[in-house]
Specification:
The complex is a heterodimer of chains A (224) and B (234). Chain A is built from nine helices and no strands. Chain A is mainly α and 224 residues long. Chain A starts with a helix and ends with a helix. Chain B has a domain of 149 residues. In chain B, strands 1-2 form a two-stranded parallel ribbon. The radius of gyration of chain B is 20 Å and the shape is globular. Classes of the chains: A mainly alpha (224), B mainly alpha (234). The interface between A and B is medium-sized, with 31 and 28 residues.
Chain lengths: 224, 234
């Protein structure tokens, strides 16, 4: 158990180090968020739209930024040809755990940046219950990242990686997206914290189930 | 054996079509060979003999596909992958049929072909999942790899299905029986006040469509086996 913890920590360190070397994923994702935000700002202009639209578009941005960024962890291994090395030096569970943590950190950072930009940019988007809002962002992005990690491992072995990932991920991620949008709407409406409790239950149970299945299946996907 | 399957499903489904459409509905007291008149559903209640059994056969097909996917991962035998993909293909056809019969029912009961009711969302997602499954299969050339990855995907997608069937309808209000607004609260299974004759037709329809599924599945499986053999001979 301790060995897995240590080796997955090193996988995480390796991911962060190779990311900081080029900063490709981080920069690309930031630019993606800025671009989509400005598209939304331009298209809305000075119109007043219902707050549900803001909650929906917030999660649209988070979803598509996850789709463009999170598959890279496994795709780059295939592109650089380093898959075999990782297979040799460490167990598949620690690879999955390390990459899972990396994706969670990356996705949560992007989610936070998007949410803060949202709160600053849109005057109509007023969150009344901040506890629901932040907890939804945390649980939603953890769920998105954990489901995307195992799907990224599948996509990395297929031929057309770029287009395939969102196609595969969308149906799996719909429960998270619908629940997260619902909880975000509740936070804007100013609902009580315990009103959002069923939504959090769905998000947490979904994430646990997905991570458990990831550990069961990853060995088959990772080793040729 | 195959003829038995074919004949049985043909006889039963013919009986269901004739009885389901032909038997009159009467208000008040009804005899055994008549259907009761259910307020709110009226003549549209006849669709239950087709929509629900097809939806059941869809579920069966996808569960079989997932089980054979798990079997493939355990035994690494390509036969299980052929079974899995055959069942998924039949499930896809049945799923489209369930969507169409449901949409027709929705048009006449709820006013529109598509209302984004939670149950309609879930069958739409089911279509997307298996659409993605076949896209994934077509994106991989090597047989073993394709079998492995597609069974892994069908398991991951399969575990999200309970969230749609049991969790989402409870959270979001909807029109379909079993939704959050439904006062009977019995869950996804329809609790209709069915009379004796209705139950006979309904259960023979369930049996008929189940046999139809197994027959279609065995035809598809044999075709896939031959295709696989021809490909490996090249």
């Amino acid at each position: 158990m301790r060995a897995i913890g240590l080796s997955s920590y090193y996988v995480l360190v390796k991911e962060i180090a190779s990311e900081l070397r080029t900063r490709y994923a981080l920069n690309a994702l930031l630019m993606f968020v800025v671009t989509t935000l400005s598209v939304i700002v331009f298209s809305l202009g000075s119109e007043h739209v219902p707050y549900e639209i803001y909650c929906g578009t917030l999660w649209v941005i988070i979803f598509f930024s996850a789709m463009s960024g999170l598959s890279r962890t496994f795709v780059t291994e295939e592109e650089r040809g380093t898959t075999l090395l990782l297979q040799l030096i460490t167990s598949s569970n620690s690879v999955l755990l390390g990459k899972l943590f990396y994706n969670v950190i990356l996705n949560f950072a992007i989610t936070l940046i998007t949410a803060i930009a949202y709160l600053i940019l849109f005057n109509d988007f007023v969150v009344r219950t901040y506890s629901i809002f932040w907890l939804t962002l945390l649980l939603g992005s953890v769920g998105l990242a954990s489901a995307s990690t195992i799907l990224a491992a599948i996509v990395a072995k297929a031929n057309s990686k770029g287009t395939l990932f969102p196609v595969l991920a969308f149906p799996v991620l719909v429960p998270i997206l619908l629940t997260a949008i619902k909880a975000t709407i509740l936070s804007v409406e100013g609902g009580m914290f315990n009103e959002a409790f069923p939504d959090f239950q769905v998000l947490i149970s979904f994430t646990i189930v997905i991570i458990a299945v990831s550990f069961l299946l990853f060995d088959f996907v990772w080793k040729d | 054996m195959h003829y038995l399957f074919k004949a049985a499903s043909a006889v039963i489904i013919t009986f269901v079509i004739i009885a389901g459409i032909g038997i009159p509905m009467v208000q008040g007291n009804h005899g055994f060979f008549e259907f009761p008149f259910i307020p709110g559903l009226e003549e549209k209640a006849r669709n239950i003999f087709f929509h629900v059994p097809i939806a059941w056969a869809t579920t069966l097909a996808f569960i079989m596909s997932m089980i054979y996917g798990i079997q493939y991962l355990r035994k690494q035998d390509i036969e299980y992958d052929l079974r899995s993909v055959s069942s998924a293909g039949i499930g896809m056809i049945l799923c489209v049929l369930a969507t169409v019969t449901g949409a027709v029912w929705a048009k006449f009961n709820w006013g529109a072909f598509w209302n984004w009711d939670p149950r309609e969302v879930s069958i739409f997602i089911l279509l997307l999942i298996y659409g993605a499954y076949f896209v994934l299969r077509s994106a991989i050339d090597e047989d073993g790899k394709r079998a492995k990855l597609s069974s892994a995907y069908s398991i991951i997608a399969g575990i999200t299905v309970p969230f749609f069937i049991f969790v989402m309808p409870r959270l979001m209000g909807g029109l379909h029986p079993g939704s959050a607004g439904d006062e009977s609260g019995k869950g996804p299974v329809l609790e209709l006040k069915m009379s004796g004759m209705m139950l006979v037709v309904f259960f023979s329809s369930l049996i008929g469509f189940t046999i139809l599924y197994f027959w279609m599945y065995s035809v598809k499986l044999r075709a896939n086996r031959i295709e696989h053999q021809l490909k490996s001979q090249e």
